[in-house]
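Section 3.1: Structural characterization of target chains.
Under the original work plan, the team committed to producing a structural model for every single-chain target entering the pipeline before any wet-lab resources were allocated. The record below documents one such target. The sequence was received from the expression subgroup and is listed exactly as submitted; it comprises 278 residues.
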Amino acid sequence: MSNIIYLGYYFEVTPLQPGVEILIAELGYAGFESFVETENGVTAYIQKEEFFDAILDDIQILKSDEFKITYTSDQIEQTNWNKEWEKNFNPIVVDNKCAVRAPFHDKFDTEFDIIIEPKMSFGTGHHETTHMMIQHILKNNFKDKSVLDMGCGTGVLAILAEMRGATKLEAIDIDNWCYLNSVENVERNNCKNIQVFEGEASLLKDKKFNSIIANINRNILLNDIKIYASCLTENGSLFLSGFYKEDIPVIVSECKKYGLSVFDELERNNWIALHLKN
């Protein structure tokens, strides 16, 4: 991977939200691989070989009158990028029960110890949504359950679900980098029951799960809640995050259409993680 060259795009967004959320979603579909939110907007990364001159032409938010978005770009060497990740990636401990750390960190005295190679995937546990999803998994029974981790990022949530007793798990992400990183992290944590797939909700046809974990973003969730509901077994649980407190009404309204009601709710810095049941 040392020869891979990345381009970095530095976007300044006004107003920040929901501008940054929409921009990340659209850039992700266009082929950008990783995102770091900043005080003024977001930095987005794409492999140079995947870039083409018109790649931003279909990013609709850049044409919107509701947002003011400016950007600059430059070229970044992948080796330097990985060093930056390692330099800035600190271990976390959730509820004194679960540690998420990199291979170069010392082991914690916790019940669950997850080792994640940081790289460029979302899901190190630092973001509020991943942190709350870890809390949900720690609070609920996963013994002998079938579990889907949709938009798995690093695979950390599927890994924890297996550690909590789940016996049949699938982890899916549309991003190739996340797919490869999840495969690596599943092996690193000696997980035996997780299958990792590259793709989107179309892979879920005719599949059933006791629990579905979807930590993505508001727009994708709203589009795919119907599919998640159809894939839940009776008395199943759906865990959703990736949206703000202000988005709760529209998310809950969509869930109610398919017989899902809120069982539990977590909030962290205005981000929300819901536990719903059918």
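The helical segments are 19-30, 78-88, 128-139, 156-163, 176-188, 218-231, 248-256.
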